Amino acid sequence: MKITVVGTGYVGLVSGACLADVGNDVLCLDVDPAKIRILEEGGIPIHEPGLQEIVRRNVAAGRLSFTTDVEYAAKFGAIQFIAVGTPPDEDGSADLQYVLAAARNIGRHMDGYRVVVDKSTVPVGTGDKVREAIAAELKARGADLPFSVVSNPEFLKEGAAVEDFMRPDRIIVGAEDERAILLMRELYGPFQRNHEKLLVMDVRSAELTKYAANAMLATRISFMNELANLAEALGADIELVRQGIGSDPRIGWHFLYAGCGYGGSCFPKDVKALVSSGREHGHDLLILNSVEQANEGQKLRLVDKIVARFGPDLSGMHFGLWGLAFKPNTDDMRDAPSRVVIGELFRRGATVSAYDPVAMDEARRIFGGEARLRYVDRPMAALEGADALVIVTEWKEFRSPDFERIRELLRHPVVFDGRNMYEPVTMRRAGLEYHGIGRR
Ligand SMILES: NC(=O)c1ccc[n+]([C@@H]2O[C@H](COP(=O)([O-])OP(=O)(O)OC[C@H]3O[C@@H](n4cnc5c(N)ncnc54)[C@H](O)[C@@H]3O)[C@@H](O)[C@H]2O)c1
Ligand SMILES: O=c1ccn([C@@H]2O[C@H](COP(=O)(O)OP(=O)(O)O[C@H]3O[C@H](CO)[C@@H](O)[C@H](O)[C@H]3O)[C@@H](O)[C@H]2O)c(=O)[nH]1
Questions:
Q1: Residues of the chain with pLDDT under 50
Q2: Which own/partner contact pairs does 128-135 have at CB distance under 8 Å and 24+ positions apart?
Q3: 85 lines ligand 2 (CB under 6 A)
Q4: Residue extent(s) of CATH 3.40.50.720 domains in the chain
Q5: What is the pTM of this model?
Q6: What fold characterizes domain 218-435?
Q7: Distance in Å, CA 361 to ligand 1 centroid
Q8: Nearest C-alpha neighbor of 257 from the set 145, 85, 386, 419
Q9: 2-201 classified as CATH 3.40.50.720
Q10: Ligand 1 lined by 120 (C-beta under 6 Å)
Q11: ipTM over 0.95 threshold
């Protein structure tokens, strides 16, 4: 099939590359010429395990190409995926300007039947707005061309995006006409070989399903974070509690890890957007309001511990920091807890030496020439001259460090671990003072 993917970010590029990998002809469009240039030169603009190989393979096979030409893109694919950003507006609602611009471009230039598939995370009712935007463009140029609008939210996780796309748990298709449903079934056939994973529903339910999934997962995390904070006060260990409840199949093991808060481009913005949708329709979503509020506080939890240990004025102190990305295996720092931690350390007068295996370029872009932040090329180098170590992201390479060396390098043998990577007893034996989240 001929497919256009509008937006070549984490979702668009992964979707386009994976769809090409099963034999489709895919054209990826982006308005950012720098991104398209990198892709045309054989690079990829993001860090995502396995993606580079798939992109290379499919470009070489002639099934995957890139463009900034809006007209060519609208004419290329019978299926037009919209995978552009939906960042939060000032009031927390999803900003639909990019989605609607993409829809208008399609309407302006399409020259035959199109299935317009919304993969961006969008509030309920966006399907109607996309339909209206395309219809208005068609009307303006006096064209009477048939099209369908489908909601097909994406559930991939960064750092495991290729695997998630290739082997999805489910494929949600919100569509109301048979022609489009048939095309979507055909398109997703290769991704559900073992059993049926495609769930067809109405567009509004599909749109809400995406927010419901993210909000539920964010709720679990905030719930565990609150319990972790309570466990500290009660002298209990959240790790043991996690194992104790995760073994109940009604609860399950996933997304029960307490830490220094959830970040990324999705949970924070999607919880806010759902709360905002609720408010708009006269429903105050009490639980989700608290989920978000709890998470804001949790991002400061590590600094609270630092302050409890060293006092509120941290001037002259220097901290080694491991992990900048919002989670391992990505360079994404959107809403990353590290940004809050670093900002708060600066505010209190401290300086930081940071190490991250892939996100340091992104950090440089975000923090610019910030003199209080130094980047180092090895985890242990972050500890040189540091008063204490702060861990924000649980990269694999931090799992088994030389604890002895950590103790030798730090001015105070203190570790603040926002991801509960180590056992308190191991740390005690290594002569390190250990502050995890909810650990005894
Ligand atoms: N990142 C994730 O893990 C993830 C997972 C599931 C769903 N989502 C959702 O998918 C959407 C995209 O997220 P992302 O992380 O890939 O965003 P992103 O910011 O990485 O990429 C979006 C891209 O769209 C481009 N763009 C903007 N307007 C355009 C237009 N009119 N035409 C062509 N290109 C345009 C931008 O230049 C950018 O490259 C969001 O709604 C997000 O909530 C993201
Ligand atoms: O038990 C847990 C699990 C995750 N996190 C944190 O939660 C955030 C989000 O993690 P994760 O969900 O793995 O990453 P994302 O790439 O943001 O993926 C989420 O957001 C995407 C965008 O909507 C969805 O497609 C995915 O299904 C959904 O998991 C990160 O900061 C994690 O550190 C925890 O604190 N504890």
A1: none
A2: 128/203, 129/96, 129/99, 129/100, 129/103, 130/82, 130/99, 130/100, 130/103, 133/100, 133/103, 133/104, 133/107, 134/103, 134/104, 134/106, 134/107, 134/110, 135/107
A3: no
A4: 2-201, 218-435
A5: 0.97
A6: Rossmann fold (3.40.50)
A7: 20
A8: 419
A9: yes
A10: yes
A11: yes
